[in-house]
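User: Continuing from earlier, I have the next pair ready.

Assistant: Great, send them over.

User: Here they are, in order.

Assistant: Folding the first of the pair now:
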Amino acid sequence: MKDFRLPQELGVAGVVLAVGIIMGVISPAFRTLDNLEVLFLNGSVVLFLALGQTFVLLTGGIDLSVGSNIALTGVIAALTMQSGVPWWAAALIALLVGVVVGLFNGAMVYWGKMPPFIVTFATFGISASIPKILTDAKSVTVSDPMFAIFGRGSLFGIPIPVVMVLIAAVLCALFLRHSATGVHIYAVGGNPATSRLAGINVAKITVLVYVISGVTAACGGIITASRLMVGYPTAGSGTEQFYSIASAVVGGVSLFGGIGSIPGAFLGALLIAEVSNGMNVIGVSSYWQPLVIGVIILIGVLIDTNRKGFSMRRLLQHFTKTTDSAIDSDSPTQGDETLGHSTSVKDDQKIQPSLKEG
């Protein structure tokens, strides 16, 4: 019998639905359309970060620089617009900065042969310092009002950040599942040495995933600066990168690489945003939120570390063994009769030679 495994995303979707129902029962304000819009709008940045973090985690790496990348790209966009650059060009420059950060991380991880944790932690400090140096730690006002479209605009009533992240999620999911490069990403995360022997360009894959993470972080920086119409040099210094890792892991992306999906990470980010929004709506102190998210991460990592999956074959084998044991324990008479029969046969064998001798 072929193993039947329940999709990881199904369990996460069930948790998202259950949390939504519980929050809606506790507070009717949670289940309003206005709050739903706020939930997605506030969660759009974390959703973007979770998409990029998923690519990195699938190769067995980690990106701790995404939070400071938000500040760096947002401030760069604001400064370029102050210098007379059009709003759309400023957004492209911010994306280019995200690419550069990703290239640096990927190059240092692969060719520098340094642990991703160390490289991206160092990049976190560098990216956090540059905007403060450029602005003397002061906020930079966005001069072009058209830039607000990224954070405050809407399309058919749907906020533009939500539209952007939905499009990005679909494109990322299709790229991972239906392209050769996507398959190679999973392969590198599963076994880099075997992937190299199979002819996969591990260097290209490693750099690519960090570039994707840098671009998604830049999208988060553009949205943040656009919503506030200010480039903050300290933006993203809170729990953003913490939540991006939590979202991916809770969504079923393995910290050890090779396992996970974009839909799972998306649902994980949605769960984190839902919990955070729900706690705000019902009036729970913000000091409790990191604690709750920390517990969620712990549970996610615990499941990931002891991942065995749900297998119908294992279930049937366990059931069969249990049934056989129960039958054996319930029929001692049969065992005794067999033992008695074997004893009598041995006795007959002993008697027969003596008869012959007689």
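And the other member of the pair:
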Amino acid sequence: MQAPGQPAPGPTTGAGQQHDRRYAPLVLSGLPEGPALGAAAPGRGAPPWRRRLLGAGCAATAAAAALATLRAAGPRAGGVPPQAVSLVSESKHSTHSAPLPFPAGDYQAAMDYLPITTFYDLTEDRPYLPAPIIHRLPAFLRRFDLRFGLEENLQGWDPEPDPTGDVRSVLCCGTAVNRLLKWAQEHLDDSDNNRTLVFSGTESPLSETWGDEEHRQALVKDFQKYFRRIYYYVTDVPLVGVHTLPLGFTEMYMRERTDQFLEAYQAVSIADSWKEHTILAAWGIYTTAGGEHYEYGNHPFADNYGTDSWAWTEVANHAIDSRNDAIGWISTPGAEATGVERQTIEKDRWWMELSKYKFILSPLGTGIQCSKVPEALSMLTIPIIKRGPFRTHDDLLQMGFPIVVVDYWKDIKHDTMETWWQARRSRPDPRPYEGRGGLKGTVADRSCLSASLHLDIAVSGGRVARFA
């Protein structure tokens, strides 16, 4: 059993996020082909959180070895993560170099390298997007031992083999919670819960699929008999024992655009000579022309991917409010003093233009998280997010993502921006293991987008780093 999903009209203000609601993630990815998540591996004497923050130039064998160590070590029991490998390439703006993260023109390699967390079925005709280029799932999605309840998402993708041994990692559709629990009770050994469970594939909010608070708590208790680590995409309500799943890239929005991404990825620098602009404000208009709220059952996005519910409608309306508030703030004198620029950027210019900014405003998406966060981080640009009523982005902060979360857009001021930028631009020690000072949470290393790191988060229940 497995999973992909469905998109929305092509973008003019981002890599494909005119409809942020379509970004239903799974877990950040990008590792080369290797053993599945949770497979047995040697190295049980290794420190429990010894993670390789593999950058663009790390070999597949090293990635597999690092992942094997993580699996064998189990959940984090302490210790200091190693330093990150800088991915900033050599250019006239930078003295550091990095090899190409994937070959130009090789879309499968790009999808295997990038943190692809969202994918949809390939059989539906979407004239506003390029036709499918690959039929093999991106590398990270192939790593799960079992894909459950995602039959609709997986249409058109090459089938993955059924698990032949002990299942240690499960990727499950958010709407298949009860079915999965029944399957686990029938097939898994509850004497050992060292497993990982990831719910994604739709934008169904947690409050919708897990029921009221009492029922949610009962489900967590039951699932924890079989899974030590549980992640969910749209965490609209807090639930002890269930962590927020970080959003990554969407496969279909990268079609015919990976070479543009690669060009900007290699050229970008945190030097002021490259980062010529301060704050970018660019987002689509999926919300409606006037910014009005959606009405349940009467909006254009009802489909089979979690958007046809009261809970989703409420989350989507918070996203509309977040965008409306941002638009209002941009026109104030305080905003003008920050240098914020409202732009409409054509999709073929998106990556290079994004790379020129130090910050980007990232209003909430209809899945709470927004695609601009991983896109910005890949271009060494810091997302600024208005918190809203959800715990989601505070979870990402706790994991260590180099983002800024504010209560109000007006909290963005020139002096605070300078503090944020300086705190996140310092280049980390490039040594992968020798450093003893802990992973420095900087935007410069892009380590929060490395496959092994996010596998570490999922497998070991860990965190990226803390930021000053």
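Worth noting for the second one:
The chain has 14 helices and twelve strands. Residues 310-330 form the longest helix (21 residues).
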